[in-house]
Amino acid sequence: MKNCFLLLLALALSGAGCQSAHPVSNQPEMTEKEVNTGNAALQSGPMLGYADMFEVLLWVQTKGPTTTKIVYWETEKPAEQYSTATLRTSAENGCTAKLIADRVQPGRNYTYRVELNGAAVKLPYPTTFKTQPLWQYRTDPPAFTVATGSCAYVNEPEYDRPGKPYGSEYQIFTSMAQQKPDLMLWLGDNTYYREPDWNTRTGMLYRYTHTRSLPELQPLLAAASQYAIWDDHDFGPNDADGTWIHKDESWEVFRSFWGNPTFGVNGQKGCTTRFQYADMDFFLLDNRYFRSPDKCANCPNRTLLGKDQLEWFLASLASSTAPFKIVAIGGQVVTTNNDDETCFHYFPAERDTILARIARENIKGVVFLTGDRHFTELSVMKNKAGNWVYDLTTSPFTAGAFSGAAQQIANELRVPGTVVEGHNFSMLRFSGPRKDRQMEINVYDADGKALWNKTITSNGEIKQ
């Protein structure tokens, strides 16, 4: 039987390889002896995707076409084991597999193992997941935590621009895993396509594989359910918009590497989706796929989100009864700064429409989670209905940080003391009884040191 490396090499040379013909940096070749072991076949993961009451998605990537399955059991009942369907990974989608654990019950803790080519993968960190509890009409909603942030750059000198490396402090992912979040929400620029990457599917698969294979990232992927939106650098070239000729290939690659519950609404493509965790609603918006060119002032029907996505979002937001409505989008919304790095700089009418509708519909508890800016800050405004609207910008994870943002970026809505100019991440904790929920924000540096803390109460104010 040919080993997986030889198969991958043959596919790559024929133009159909799992990652392109380039090996991932520092990835040793597989030997004939290793081919039948699980660890030798694993490229990256496992990663937890969406988690609900009766279903959990698990993701893995292999080094070549490989038979793949997940065996799982309730942690307290190891004798009763279940298995996902067995899938064979293929070159077409980067040798990734999405495996569904559908023999689960609400509110239970499970342990699992990955089996590749019939052999178990042995990992140095826990492989567990938990299903969402059935709390409605029974108890108060559970407390839970969310890790979030944006802009993850992993260096590869052969293809990076010359000069000082743009990425650093990968230990931030270890610090995030140590926080033990229940879920993680990636806010865009989750990988950075380089010039060799964005014009071909091969290049896109290669870049995602390179980033996803970072050793420091693996425990975090396995520790929490991962959800994601994209921004320009993991969609296409810098400032890419809806005219991007390869956006459909980019969408297909995005779907292959993330485990969101859906990808696009109302029959459209893109990364738009909505999910509920405990009693909170999360809205994931796409600011790239439908976007008009930024500097095409005379383009008809100029839009950031697109008519259908915008109407869906505003109607969905109005229908939500969640104490906090968490809206993820790849750029700032609530700010008085108006440089061209803000999300709606070129689309002010659309921003005004969103904020006006939130006020007119008397929608409470709206919190935008944004990234892109390469610095972190919390912004807040009180609208005409008397409700507070927040924007928590968290950036960057490992990409270059904006030194001097506090002085150079004027924002009258900024909460004092919340600017961070180095690598950082945010942790959100939702807690409290059903009618008095609160959201605590903690921001940490790359080493896990606490930088600032704010708590938003059920009436929308910051606790003093």
Q: What can you tell me about this protein's structure?
A:
The longest helix has 13 residues, at 307-319. The strands form 4 sheets. Strands 3, 4, 5, 7, 8 and 9 form a 6-stranded antiparallel beta sheet that branches. A 6-stranded mixed beta sheet has the order 12-11-10-19-20-21. It is of the alpha+beta class and 464 residues long. Helix 3 (172-178) links the parallel strand 10 (144-149) and strand 11 (183-187). Mean pLDDT is 93; it is low at 1-17 and 19-36. The chain folds into 2 domains: 4-130, Sandwich (Immunoglobulin-like), CATH 2.60.40.380; 144-456, 4-Layer Sandwich (Purple Acid Phosphatase, chain A, domain 2). It is built from 9 helices and 21 strands. Helix 4 (201-212) runs parallel beside helix 6. It is globular and about 60 Å long.
Question: Strand pairing plus helix content: what structural class?
Answer: alpha+beta
Binned, the helix content reads 10-25%
Overall outline = globular
Helix and strand sequence? HHEEEEEEEEEEHEHHEHEEHEHEEEHEEE
* Integer count of domains: 2
Counting copies of identical and different chains, the oligomeric state is: single chain
The CA-CA distance between the termini, in Å, is: 67 Å
Please give the radius of gyration in angstroms: 22 Å
CATH architecture descriptor text of the largest domain:
4-Layer Sandwich
User: What count of helical segments does DSSP give?
Assistant: 9
Provide the CATH superfamily of the largest domain. Answer: Alkaline phosphatase D (PhoD)
CATH level 1 class label of the largest domain? Alpha Beta
Main β-sheet, in a few words? 6 strands, antiparallel
